[in-house]
Amino acid sequence: MSYKPDEGTLIAYLYGELEGSAKERVERYLADSEEARRELEALKEVRGIMGLVRDKEVIAPPLVIDSRARFFNLSSPLVRAVLAIAASLVILMVAGKLTGVQISASENEIRLTFGQPRSSAPDATPSLGGPYTKLTVADKKKGEISRG
Question: How far apart are CA 39 and CA 26, in angstroms?
Fold first, then answer.
């Protein structure tokens, strides 16, 4: 006989899940093969042993199993506050780029300007005192200081 059922088909026969011609073919194979009957008996023993094992409730594991997972909890107030601040800064940076905001800082002042800077007015030039009284932006770029 050329037909030999696989283990899944034998298990389906054992549990009574085969019907019609599939069931008849397995029964004919079992009638003709002593080895197949022994294999079926071994499967019956395994089924009996598995029947003795009690089912336990299995709790699904978390998606990420990591020792660091407890430190990065998106619902914690600290993480939410840091993310809110970061998002606010990103929004401010995008809005500043779109509106032309320029921020400059010196020793004790922070200057916030909108749009292109105007050319410096003559009265807004800093004074160094002494014989060198005026320093213009253009002179500073050239490295020259004009005498007043």
Answer: 13
How do the pLDDT tens digits run along the chain, 148 residues long?
578 888 888 889 888 888 888 899 999 998 988 888 898 899 889 888 888 888 888 887 666 655 555 556 777 888 889 999 999 989 988 888 888 887 788 888 888 777 766 665 555 445 444 444 444 555 555 555 555 4
| pTM, entire model | 0.36
What does the radius of gyration of the chain's CA atoms come to, in whole angstroms?
43
Q: Cα 116 vs. chain centroid, distance in angstroms?
A: 40
Q: Which residue has the tokens 């197949």?
A: 36
CA angle 59, 62, 67 (to 5 degrees): 120
Burial of 127 (0-12, 13-18, 19+ CB in 10 A): exposed
| Residue 89 tokens, joined | 């800064």
